[in-house]
Each structure stands twice: as C-alpha cells, then as structure tokens.
Amino acid sequence: MGDEVAHHYRHPAVPDVDLLRARFVTHRFTRHTHEGYVFGVIDAGVEEFEHAGGVHRAGPGSVVLVNPDVVHGGHAGTPEGWAYQVIYPPVDVVTGVAADLGARPGTPAFPDPVVTDPAAARLLHALHRAGEKGDALAASTLLKATVARLLARHARGFQPRDEPAGMPRAVREARDILHASLVEPPSLDELAAAVGARPFPLLRAFRDTVGLPPHAYLNQVRVREARALLDEGLRPAEAAVRTGFADQAHLTRHFKRTLGVPPGAYRSARTIGRVGARGTEEAS
C-alpha cells in the first residue's frame, strides 16, 4: 500500500465539514472523541478500532459511522495498514438534513459502527472527488445526499446532546475546571479538593462518565482549542503555548494522534482553503 499519507482539508462549498483522505500503516489514533459525526469508507486494507467497549474491524468497502462524543481509537488491522476517506459533519448539518427528511427533533444516532452500504460508499467517494476538484455545486449536493442516505438506512433513534444522564456533580464541576485551566491545570489531588471529592473516586467517576481520565480529556480539549487557533491562522508554536502544551512537539504528538495529521499540515490546508474561497468570491 506504500507510505503513509494524509490530507485533512475543507472545501469552501461545505465550510463546516472536515474531510480526510489518508493511508496509514503504523499510525495509531489515541482514544478520543469528536464533537460531530465521523462517516468514512475504507478503500483498502483493514482498520481496527475501539468503540463503545468493543473492538471492530472495517475492511474494503465498509462504511464506518461514529456518533458525536463517543470515545474511539484506530489502528491498522493488518500489517499492510488501511486507506480510507472520511467526512466529519457537525451535529447541526446532520440534524438539518434529518429535519428535511421529516425526522422528529433530536440528534440522530447510528447504533452500528461498521455497515455495508455500497451506495453510501460511492457517495462518500464522489463527495471527496468533488471537494478535491473544487466543484462547489457537486460537493454541497453530495454532502446532503450522503448524509440523507446514511440517515435513511442506518440511523436508529436519537441521542441527547446534553450532559450524560446522571453525570455526578463532582465530574461536571471537574470538567468545567479543566476547560478553564488549559495552561495551568490542577493536579488530581487539587482537582478533587476543588470539587469536594477524594482523588481516586473522582478519577473513577470521571472515566466512567466521560469515557476518558481527566488528563486525557484535558488533552482533547487542548487539541480542539488549538484547532480553533490554527483555523484563525496562528502558527503551531503559538497555538501550543496558548493551549497549555509544553511546546510545538508536544502539540504535534497529541494533534496527530487525534486528527491524523500534524498541526502544520492542518494549518496549511486551512490557509489554502481560505485563499481558494477568496479567489472564487473575487471571480464571481
């Protein structure tokens, strides 16, 4: 399958949706979450990933569906690795298409993380081709067609977008403290004292409720904030400082483990996308 490559980008016609086309062999995604959905199609090889307490394998032609805020990882399921094409639509894009289809209010949930759907696979491929060619009409049309197909065939019920049911007060307050303390986070003992809990019970409750221990959750929040800063045009070194990473190398390690590309490549793709969008506007 050759060397590892990854291209993470946005098309101006679908500015809120990230796209990833990649081939990985030794790369491993750390356990992480996304605020929106993950829809992908496997082109070659096998991806193996943790999801909702189990391990799943997706081979050529398989479509992968991950709901928002679900902890998952990812790595090669065979020595040859895997190649795939992925879209990351935010919740409002998916719920908007669901509303157009007449669904009741709520956030659609996909119970099966791996499905066989050749039509959906073709739509995902076509959407990526349109994005790479800069075809605005085709890209925006295919995005809605892809989401509509997946909703109609694979969504089952709805999931709440608020806090998990029964989230303990201490976990909720600890999470809020971490969001406000990216640069100088407290130790576990300090965090527990701040919310009126003992360290180990808080660690266990946080992990059981959120899906990640506090330090791993904090790094996820830092990566998301760094992405926002890179989207604004900041350089990776400055984004690292502002989000509490020790240095650019520290940011790069966590960023790539979550998104599949280093922050410099991510920023470059965003810059190209903004230039392309301005050029389109000036020509119209």
From TrEMBL:
The keyword DNA-binding applies. Residues 172-269 form the HTH araC/xylS-type domain. The keyword Cell membrane does not apply. Keywords: DNA-binding, Transcription, Transcription regulation. Pfam families: AraC_binding (PF02311), HTH_18 (PF12833). This is AraC family transcriptional regulator. The lineage of its organism: Bacteria, Bacillati, Actinomycetota, Actinomycetes, Streptosporangiales.
